[in-house]
Amino acid sequence: MQDPEYMNKMIYKFEKHIPAIVQQVLEELGFLEWDANVHEDDVWNIFWKSQRPSLGEFRRAASYQKLIHIPKTGLICSKDNLARLIKKMK
Q1: How far apart are CA 11 and CA 47, in angstroms?
Q2: How far is residue 73 CA from its own chain's centroid?
Q3: Which helix (DSSP H) or strand (DSSP E) does residue 71 occupy?
Q4: pTM assigned to the model
Q5: Which residues in 62-79 are b (16+ Cβ under 10 Å) and which e?
Q6: Are 11 and 33 in contact (CB under 8 A)?
Q7: The domain containing residue 64 runs over which residues?
Q8: Is residue 15 within 8 Å of 50, Cβ to Cβ?
Q9: Number of domains in the chain
Q10: Which tens digit of pLDDT belongs to each residue from 51-86?
């Protein structure tokens, strides 16, 4: 049974970790974090994956659900790695 606070809200779920900036932006846009104590496993709108989603995950996702995986996101989401990569590009 869902908590009334979560009814009609956009919900994001993540696997292992999510870059802090991504989490901040989602929450500023009104998304709520998925909670295992409140939600069933398939109640989410955006699922941020640390690994490439499998074909089965894409097939099981409903039309309103989006699986997101951006390779090497960790490299640009930490300041020291970002600074190193920018220097490398110059």
Answers
A1: 9
A2: 12
A3: none
A4: 0.64
A5: eeebebeeeeebeeebee
A6: yes
A7: 4-89
A8: yes
A9: 1
A10: 788 888 889 899 989 988 877 666 556 667 777 777
